[in-house]
Design goal:
- 2 copies of one chain form a homodimer.
- By secondary structure, chain A is α+β, with helices and mostly antiparallel strands.
- Helix content of chain A is about 35%, strand content about 15%.
- In chain A, helix 13 packs antiparallel against helix 16 (about 390-405) and helix 19 (about 450-465) runs antiparallel to helix 20 (about 495-515).
- The interface between A and B is large, with 91 and 90 residues.
């Protein structure tokens, strides 16, 4: 039923060039994807908000960035940068210094909404090639100038904050070339500033553009796919939405070229070796604290959409849903490329959004209840299989067999099509909700199967203890030994301090319940303070020893990255 | 046809207790597995040896170990060790000091055959539990006493050589317990001294012995399986014969407990994390140079032999065989657990051994030639699939489809049964051949697909340049990006110096052709001198920085391990 009382006044025009909003807005400037009426109704009901709450955007950050930053970089250094990369690739204006100093953490977004930037680069530099990076790193090392790397700018962990100013290197501007394509080895070597969609398009079109025999896919589709770089994926240990089959980025990277303060080197692309601890792996997840990744050699996969199978089931409860996902993950019939289970609260939101409104919805709802699939008990499981035709078909079949044995109702592949269609659009809704004073953010963790329930219950308890707060959770990266948990919370909130306290409480609760500090967002400067407590001082000291080795002057992404320089 | 002229006089009695032979003989003392007549005939033909060469064992090392070693360990230290572990767990006799100072490298075997041990421990200590290891490591650190770890003793890279004497820790004596079994997570936690067969038996019998719902397998079956420890697998980055499906040991280890000179710590068992470079992985392959591994948490898998499929094909040439293996590895229908391709020379030896002798053999040989499968061209491919029933069946089918398209003849599953039956017996033949002055040794490497042919041809060329030398090669660990190459050479040779020169030449050739220094044997002290040249000084310096961090006094397996302390 259309609800005339719900008439949100979303802010639709593209943000003005030069505005704070243009920095924090997710995605392409002119593109928007507003929350549906069903979602707004749900928010009003669950949060006890009046529909009028959605009529007045506030703290929208539409003002132009003020020109009042003090210069923090000596002119001689700025000129040295221009000597290396050409002056057209050096920026000292306030807008650039602020733009490339902020990622997509809510803390950063709120600061920009309040027109109070959290940080500013001393100077922004766009290297053209690896030799530029080598010269810049050598110069900064000699001059003890902090150096922060900016890839796609979608870090949610304050990874790109130039905490001590200095040089910010923007990789996406020029360093976005394919360096090698090796069809025999099924690998591609790309510069680290290559953006996700450009990389995927190149592989998809390999026959025409690379004279390949087949079409390929990179297999890595993080939520940030459209606005992240290959280098960012590697530096933060990302995982894509199809990681259960294709692997996390840790599995995908065979070789790297890195420029560190003490020198440049490349790791070889052997599929496996027994020549001691793997330096290639030591650089994965180093978050710019050891050096600058300039190129990576990654595994690629056949693109065979014709073999794809999609399936969705509704299960009677959360324990049965976890059991189904675990049995699928441990079934030894290969892994689905997409597997995603939603807890009861996320399931209700999904059902509301995907068709349980209106008259058909009422009928469907009655049917579900008759089958024992009760609201706030039932859970959604969606999946997709890829690979060779029989392989993909068998995964869908075996998954279905497991789900049905656990009391599931088959929902066809439609919910997966819907999810797939909207999967890169959902983040656009964040800015609309923030405009209306409804804060939405996410926190995530990795868990072993035996600790999944306690982490889920413990974190939910804390989040739900806040009044008017929604907490949805799903797991979407599966391994035989466990999975991740991805918590999405929504709550009326506008203050930065209030947010930071709440966020810190959630992180502490995740770790206290036995979850990892991060499954795929990385640590950045946001979660650095938890590192010693979570991994143990002895282990973080290993990373500190590596840091001292590569970066004796602590110029690389200093100021708390990975918690390395907090002592 | 039986050949009366071939009547080898194998040395059959078990080696005398206390003899040099008892140290180097492969496997259980009373067990032997002699080369078949067909193999001896082949060797005589190919090497131009007379059958009489096989009538007189020499350099058999049957003498008792002499008691003439000088004491190298201060009595006060020996007594300190006894205070920690009890004096029944401390050995100072010459036999123990020599036994635990030698692994299974041919250089070690030849030295013992000539009754000239290469090295001796100062004192041999058998820790009972982790606390013992902690106390021993702390003591040695404080006193600057070298410490070498001995697992199963099957290192072929001089990994257990106590190059500077000191304490040798024998892990297999007491530290062989299961610490945890987690069926929900599909993991087992075992002490590092657990031997392969004991570990596998425990998992196979999990319903009875661990009250599990299912039977399990560790999935890791290196050639050394029967005489290696879990800790040794991890420390040297081993790969099992079913690694193409189950993964190398690098993939199998989720968590470790390690005791280093600067402290003890455990890594968590999350299936994946994004909390910086993974300290768990940094310890894999550290070959005892950073600390002592006391326990590991490993993935386990369902044991489902009822689903197993075996297949074997004969292909018309080496290029077609490589193409078949590559297409299977890149087919995206899941990986066979066993996949093994033999080059033409290995294929001829296998066919001779497995039934192409005698009258039936002659007939079969004629048939093969008619089908274009010519001697010294044709190649054997064998495979096995495991996992869920339809999954395993599909792998066998798709593999067959690929092979047939490339001109293969189906050989049934019989050759795989034969291989499987003999796979842990083959090493027993080594001692028989050595007794007769025929040296057999192996060297291995990892290659990407595009460099496979050049490494194979280049290494073969060097080996075959030596007169009277057989060179067989197979690949048996597969990845979408490449594989390994395993070279077996046989040549009449008895001198240690001659052997070392030949071996060094082969290693240098492997690296020069673009192969890795090791796929799964590890580096040890044998290949340490090649590390800087192979990986580049910058990368080995990263390992040196880690070494300094964990082991500032260089007490852990010093004297060339991983090439860390050669400068």
């Amino acid at each position: 039923m259309p609800d005339p009382s719900i008439d949100p006044r979303w802010l639709t025009p593209p943000p003005l060039q030069g505005s704070y909003r243009s920095i924090f807005k997710w995605g392409a400037p002119g593109r928007s994807y507003h929350p549906r009426t069903g979602l707004v109704r749900l928010l009003c009901e669950r949060m006890g908000l009046s529909p009028q709450s959605f009529s007045t955007p506030r703290n929208t950050g539409e003002a132009a960035v003020r020109n009042d930053l003090p210069a923090t970089m000596d002119a001689v250094h700025v000129s040295a940068m221009a000597d290396i990369v050409g002056k057209e690739n050096v920026q000292c204006d306030d807008y650039a210094r602020i733009r490339y100093a902020h990622g997509q953490a809510v803390e950063e977004i709120l600061a920009l909404r309040h027109e109070r930037p959290r940080a500013a680069a001393g100077v922004v530099v766009h290297p053209r090639q690896r030799e530029d990076v080598q010269a810049i790193v050598a110069y900064c090392h000699a001059q003890h100038i902090p150096l922060t790397v900016y890839g796609g700018g979608s870090s949610v962990t304050l990874g790109v904050t130039p905490a001590r100013g200095g040089v910010t290197l923007v990789m996406q501007t020029h360093m976005r070339r394919l360096l090698a394509f090796n069809e025999a080895n099924r690998t591609a070597t790309v510069e680290s500033g290559m953006m996700g969609p450009a990389y995927e398009a190149l592989l998809n079109d390999a026959p025409a553009r690379l004279r390949a025999r087949h079409r390929y896919t990179c297999g890595h589709f993080p939520q940030s796919f459209e606005f992240s770089t290959v280098g960012g994926w590697v530096a933060t240990l990302g995982a894509g939405q199809q990681s259960s089959y294709y692997g996390d980025i840790y599995d995908l990277v065979l070789g790297q070229k890195v420029v560190t303060p003490i020198g440049t080197f490349s790791t070889a692309d052997y599929p496996a070796t027994a020549t001691g601890p793997k330096v290639n792996d030591i650089f994965k997840g180093s978050e710019g604290a050891f050096g600058v990744l300039t190129a990576a050699t990654l595994k690629i996969f056949r693109l065979m959409p014709e073999n794809r199978r999609r399936f969705a089931y509704l299960l009677p409860g959360w324990p049965q849903t976890i059991a189904a996902a675990r049995e699928i993950s441990q079934g030894e019939f290969g892994m689905p490329s997409v597997l995603r289970i939603s807890d009861p609260e996320e399931t209700e939101a999904a059902l509301q959004l995907y068709g349980l409104g209106g008259r058909i919805g009422e009928y469907a709802e009655r049917l579900l209840r008759l089958k024992g699939l009760l609201p706030m008990k039932r859970c959604l499981l969606i999946g997709q299989s890829d690979g060779e035709r029989h392989f993909a078909r068998n995964i869908a079949r075996q998954s279905g067999r497991i789900c049905r044995r656990l009391g599931a109702l088959w929902l066809s592949g439609y919910p997966v099509d819907r999810w797939s269609h909207g999967r890169f659009l959902d983040p656009y809704m964040r800015d609309d909700l923030h405009d209306m004073g409804v804060l939405i953010d996410t926190l995530e963790t990795a868990v072993t199967w035996d600790r999944l329930m306690q982490v889920h219950a413990g974190v939910r308890e804390l989040i739900k203890a806040r009044p008017q707060t929604l907490c949805m959770c799903h797991a979407s990266h599966f391994y035989p030994q466990g999975t991740n948990l991805y918590f999405i919370f929504m709550t009326p909130m506008t203050g930065v301090d209030d947010f930071r306290r709440f966020q810190a409480d959630i992180i502490s609760r995740i770790v206290a319940c036995g979850g990892s500090l991060s499954h795929h967002h990385g640590v950045g400067k946001l979660m650095g303070p938890w590192m010693d407590g979570h991994l143990g001082r002895a282990q973080v000291d290993v990373l500190r020893a590596l840091k001292r080795h590569f970066d004796p002057h602590n110029i690389m992404n200093p100021g708390g990255t990975l918690g390395l320089d907090l002592h």
